[in-house]
Amino acid sequence: AFTILLLQVIKVYNEDNTSRAVEVPSDITARDICQLFILKNHCIDDHSWTLFEHLSHLGIERIIEDHESVMEVLSGWAMDTDSRLYFRKNFAKYEFFRKPLDFFPDHMVSISSETNGIVDHSQLIETFLNSSTCPEIHGHLHAKEQSRKSWKKFYFVLRRSGLYFSNKGTSKEPRHLQFIADFSDSDIYTDLSAKKLHGAPTDYGFCVKSTKGSSARDLKLLCADDEQARTCWITAMRLLKYGMQLYQNFIQCFVFRSISENALVAMDFSGQKTRVIENPSEVLSVAVEEGLSWRRKSCHRLSGHGSPSTSQSSVPNIALHLAQPWFHGKLSRDEAQRLISQQGLTDGLFLLRDSQSNPKTFVLSLCHMQKIKHFQILPVDDEGELVYSLDDDHTRFTDLIQLVEFYQLNRGVLPCKLKHHCARITL
């Protein structure tokens, strides 16, 4: 017997809201669509490309897991609403498998009585994946009361059987726990406009929505006090809903392409043999030396093509970074925060942009411990040549490319090395 696969046209958006329509078979998964766009756009497949379900009228969105059927997701959309599929990077999608401790703070996790409630961190993720053990996430959350405008703070408990809140302080006694939702037929969304649309007390909103429902009435709106707590709740809910399937998705991404955490190492190519440089201060001097000789060559090339070579060295300095995928030009602080948050709050996610407060300087926006920090890059006059520094002129770079390359290899004054850059793509 033949199965006839129907082709359907779907529309997919990217960060700047340009879109592209593609014809796809009806059994296509989110991972297939990502692969399709990676090929069409000649992107590098670094396992972070993700499909999102974005429901504008409700101000919420979620990751569509790699194995999910996209047509099933679309079939849940109401006709008269602005619902979209977005294709963009999310570096945090599987980060909890690598660094569970960043996602599950001690005070929010306990594990069933077999281990006397002591969390063995090496086993933390296994506890979620193994259906016979019972991990529990607990803590205070604000909840919006049904059909009212007010929010109230309760003590919440998340277990395999679902999400509960206590109607008596922090009591976990069965008679005090009230059931709110389970995940068999609902999904977990991030609330993108918790304060604005839903009047939440903080910006860290999320919600549980029934797969059948499409109006604001069907949302169980919650909000946490900080980003770490929100990430912990959402990650735990994803793990409890999909379990082993998530781990298989993760393995599928990495089994073919195990990118070493330290794929970037400093190499010295000057001698007869190449060697890896271990000493950080030597790395810097080699990098600066290489950078200078490379720039000298490119200056000669530029001035050789009849371009005005009055200040030979400054020509490439100014223009080189503009073409880099990590440079975002006149991006405001708020837009930088939004872009980094959208692409997943993982350590080392970064971008560079023009400073808005000081026109001649640049800013490095960097994520560390789920917070986004901004560092000013100042131009320094070095005997008539402009150089750049991020640490009050202790370490100098001839241009921004060299600065970025250095901090990809060395932490220096930063809280962590630069690891992934925020890139925007055109579909």
Walkthrough of the structure:
The chain is of the alpha+beta class. It folds into three domains: 83 residues, Roll (Ubiquitin-like (UB roll)); 161 residues, PH-domain like; 155 residues, SHC Adaptor Protein, CATH 3.30.505. It contains twelve helices and 20 strands. InterPro entries: BPS-dom (IPR015042), GRB/APBB1IP (IPR039664), PH-like_dom_sf (IPR011993), PH_APBB1IP (IPR039665), PH_domain (IPR001849), RA_dom (IPR000159), SH2 (IPR000980), SH2_dom_sf (IPR036860). Keywords: Cytoplasm, Phosphoprotein, SH2 domain. Belongs to the GRB7/10/14 family.
In CATH, the homologous superfamily of the largest domain goes by the name Pleckstrin-homology domain (PH domain)/Phosphotyrosine-binding domain (PTB)
Mean model confidence by pLDDT: 84
CATH class of the largest domain: Mainly Beta
By helix and strand content, what is the structural category? alpha+beta
Relative helix content: 25-40%
CATH architecture of the largest domain: Roll
Number of strands: 20
The number of domains: 3
**Remind me, CATH topology of the largest domain?**
PH-domain like
Could you name the ranges where pLDDT drops below 50 across 5 or more consecutive residues?
256-263, 298-316
Which geometry do the CA atoms define?
A: globular
Percent of residues in beta strands:
25-35%
- Rg for CA atoms: 25 Å
N/C terminus separation: 38 Å
Assembly state here?
Answer: single chain
Q: Main sheet, how many strands, which sense, barrel?
A: 13 strands, mixed
Number of helices: 12
Domain Ras-associating: 8-92
Protein name: Growth factor receptor bound protein 14
Organism: Mastacembelus armatus
Family: Belongs to the GRB7/10/14 family.
